[in-house]
Structure formats: structure tokens, C-alpha cells
Design brief:
alpha/beta; 12 helices; binds 1-O-phosphono-alpha-D-glucopyranose; transferase; UTP:glucose-1-phosphate uridylyltransferase activity; nucleotidyltransferase; UTP--glucose-1-phosphate uridylyltransferase; Nucleotide-diphossugar_trans
Length: about 300
């Protein structure tokens, strides 16, 4: 184990996407601000980074993303109004997001893909390994994934991606990894990666889910990575280069995740995430579950 390296402390969250799948809701509101029960999706992601010990968060934003910055900033008018009313619990809710982490923002300008978004983090991240969290994937806080990835990165060096087994007909939605086992059940070495392959071309049904711990050498590789799938600069293509040439920036490992993950980038999955999380909430859950049961039993159309 190498303990001489400084602990990973920076998280990068790409949030420049247009969110067209949620139009018209996302016409004037960033998709990251859509509520999952009563918190914007992006706050869950920042909370996840903070629970893994990463309290320096860089968001890669774009035009029309100002509400993200406002959400993680103080709102003095609201705070004062709630203080005047003596509403301590709502005041705490308002302050939660501004007290969470040290937030930084950089604009992507031209949205040229996820790889390009990550490259925008270079001046902030510099030469330390760092984490990348994609906002469309919510990982249940009861199933800590990022801490395990950081542990594996600290043990092996290089980069680490999060993998999840998916059905063959789903693999075209993800980056797919060729893998070999290691001594740890939940850890594999990644030998190849293909971005969103047809099922017949996929090296496996291990899909990259939106968590990465990256060696800073990824920046140099990204600078040389041309447009890939969809004409965009793909992070998967840069990681493929790293996986195939471990002399550049160390090996690429995968942590195989078997916990609870909610995809909020798709409308159906977004609705399922809300129902599930609402059912499990201590405050809202009891009433909501009673209603849901009677709705399912008595009113649900076929
Ligand atoms: C991105 C990555 C893909 C990964 C996915 C996980 O794709 O390019 O490799 O599997 O995130 O959610 P996107 O879903 O942003 O198109």
C-alpha cells in the first residue's frame, strides 16, 4: 500500500449537458436541478462526493447553468425570512447545500463531449488523482462505491472506473469493458473499453457507470483523443488508451458495483427513483406507502 501520496481530495462533476430528454422542464432550468423528492439531483451527487472525503468540488457548467451556482451559495433573503419566522428546520434545509463543500465552477464553452468536459478540469486538478461523478447516476448512500474506488486507486495507482453488469440489450447505452479478474471479488483489471457498442461488438456486459477515479495523465491523453462515438471527445476512448498502455499512467481497474443505483437521466428511471426514495424516507415514507398501496390495489390502470 502506498500512503506517501496525498489523499484524493478533488471531485469533478460535469454538468454542461442540455437535458433535452426532459424538455420542456429543462428549457430554462438545468436538468441537474430537477428534484428527486425534495432535493435537486445534483445535491445528492455533491453529498456523495463529500461522504467519500472529497470536499473540493469543481462543476463543469455551461450557459443557462446559473441556478447550480445559486443552489450551492447562500441565499440571505430566504435565510433572513426564515430566521424572522423562527423556522429553524427549514433554515437548516436552506443552508445544507451551501455548507456542504468548497464549490468551484468552470464553463465548458463548446460542449464537445464528456472527455472534453473532463479536460476543462485540468487547471484546477493539476497533477493529483481526482474523482469524476456524472450527475445522471445516483448511488444510494447506503452502498458506498466511491470510497471503495478511492481505496483501490490508493492501492494500485492508475485509474479506477465503476462497473455494473447490465443486460446485453442495455450495453449499447454505456461504455463496455473487457476485464480480467484480480484477487478481490469486486475488483477487476480493465484491458479494453468501447463506448456504446452494439451488443454483438461489446467486449462484455460490464458497463461503466458514472463514477471514475482518474490518474492526471488522462489529461495528456484526452488532448490527443479525437472525436469518437457521436462525434464527441469520449472519456472512454482516453481510458482505453490508458488501459492498453499502462506505462502512461498506471493500470485501469474496475470496481464492480452491486448496490443500488438510480438513473435520473431517463424519464422512466427518474420516476422510479423518486417513488423508491420517497417510499424509503422516514418523514414522507409512511403516508406515501399507504397511498401507493391503495393506488396500486384499487386505481392503477392496466
Ligand atoms: C457516459 C459515458 C459512458 C458511461 C455512461 C454512464 O455516457 O460516456 O461510457 O457508460 O456515461 O452513465 P452518457 O450516458 O453521458 O451518454
Amino acid at each position: 500500500m502506498t500512503h506517501s501520496r496525498p489523499r484524493i481530495s478533488k471531485a469533478v462533476i460535469p454538468a454542461a449537458g442540455l437535458g433535452t430528454r426532459f424538455l420542456p422542464a429543462t428549457k430554462a432550468t438545468p436538468k441537474e436541478m430537477l428534484p428527486v423528492v425534495d432535493k435537486p439531483a445534483i445535491q445528492y451527487v455533491v453529498e456523495e462526493a463529500v461522504s467519500a472525503g472529497l470536499s473540493d468540488v469543481l462543476m463543469i457548467t455551461g450557459r443557462n447553468k446559473r441556478p447550480l451556482e445559486d443552489h450551492f451559495d447562500r441565499n440571505y433573503e430566504l435565510e433572513e425570512a426564515l430566521t424572522r419566522k423562527g423556522d429553524a428546520s427549514r433554515l437548516a434545509r436552506v443552508r445544507e447545500s451551501s455548507d456542504l463543500a468548497t464549490m468551484h465552477y468552470v464553463r465548458q464553452g463548446d460542449p464537445k463531449g464528456l472527455g472534453h468536459a473532463v479536460l476543462c478540469a485540468e487547471p484546477h486538478v493539476s497533477d493529483q488523482p481526482f474523482a469524476v461523478l456524472l450527475g445522471d447516476d445516483l448511488i444510494d448512500p447506503r452502498d458506498p462505491l466511491l470510497s471503495r474506488m478511492i481505496e483501490i486507486q490508493e492501492r494500485h495507482g492508475g485509474s479506477v472506473v465503476a462497473l455494473m453488469k447490465v443486460e446485453p440489450e442495455q450495453i449499447h447505452l454505456y461504455g463496455s469493458a473487457a476485464i480480467v479478474p484480480t484477487g478481490d471479488d469486486d475488483v477487476v483489471q480493465v484491458t479494453d473499453l468501447v463506448e456504446k457498442p452494439e451488443a454483438s461488438q461489446a467486449p462484455s456486459t460490464y458497463a461503466i457507470i458514472g463514477r471514475y477515479v482518474l490518474d492526471p495523465s488522462v489529461f495528456e491523453v484526452l488532448k490527443k483523443t479525437g472525436p469518437g462515438r457521436g462525434g464527441e471527445i469520449q472519456l472512454t476512448d482516453a481510458l482505453r488508451e490508458l488501459a492498453q498502455h499502462t506505462e502512461i499512467g498506471g493500470p485501469v481497474h474496475g470496481v464492480v458495483f452491486t448496490g443500488r443505483r438510480y438513473d435520473t437521466g431517463d424519464r422512466g428511471d427518474y420516476l422510479r427513483a423518486i417513488v423508491r426514495l420517497a417510499c424509503e424516507r422516514e418523514d414522507l415514507g409512511p403516508d406515501f406507502r399507504t397511498w401507493l398501496r391503495s393506488y396500486v390495489n384499487e386505481e392503477l390502470p392496466e
